[in-house]
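Entry type: protein chain
Record version: 2
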Amino acid sequence: MQNPDTFFYQTITQIATAEFKDRGSKFIAYSFPINNKEDFKKQLNELKKEHAKAVHFCFAYRLGLNGNDFRVSDDGEPAGSAGKPILNQIDSKRLTNLAVIVVRYFGGTLLGVPGLINAYKTATALALQVVPIIQKPVEVMYELQFDYTLMNEVMQLVKQFNCTINKQEIQLFCLIQIGIPKQRIEEILYKLKNLHAVSVKKI
């Protein structure tokens, strides 16, 4: 699992798919990046529309760095035969902020629990093999409020320190929410405070 003290985490930034077949059953794995549970639900609903005749939509996802935000589902398969093998593959690559959904079309032959574990594990492993894994900086969220006249200086710092802008309201008085890379927090906070009229608040 990810270490909460690290400055980087591993994830994926694009969707990948892979297929595994066993005795007539077809297992199609989709791996995709997510930032929250809503992203996941949206993707699951889309796959259910796309594969209306599939019998199972088993999945696992992991979010954040503390190791507690994850979910697995066997979606009607025997307990522990689908969701957990999928999550184990995600964790074996030390990934977070992603989900894998495996869509199953039943081929008429029961595979048994060992067969199912192997199928869900293999389909997931194949999908994670074909997608590029990237390292992203761990970010801490801050809210900045300042007068519009300081816009250029604030934005220059945001750009210089590779911060992510998550929300901005630009009027005479501006409010922006940014993600600051954890390893550079002290530097950027020091510089923002030197601008005086900028209010900085951790969120």
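Comment: The chain has five helices and eleven strands.
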